[in-house]
User: What shape does this take?
Amino acid sequence: MLKKLLSVILPADPQTRNAQIHRKILRDAARMGGTLFGPVPEGNRREFFCLDENTWVWHEEWTDTNNIRQARTTRYDIRPHGIFKAQDGMPYQPLNTEEARRLYMAAYHYQQQLHAKYDPLLAAV
Assistant: This one.
């Protein structure tokens, strides 16, 4: 039983271990990105992260005034012919200039915080 538990916590397979580390870093970066626009209110969840080289995700969960849990996920795809967004399964729409500028600034600040946090750790390795 202990061996099985340890295999889940500390997998021997390097590929599995690397995938777990990647997911942990992505979750940590998403939480950090969620604080770019200020503190996240108690009981809410907000995440902003770079999924891959062409995809950014903004996810937010909150409780509305009727005490009903709400969630919204916005996915931004950077394509050769523009930036497009889709919210909660709706079709992709092109970004207007102002929203594209705000996304650029958010991505810039995200990258700055990511480097500030992880560069010292990487340098120490």
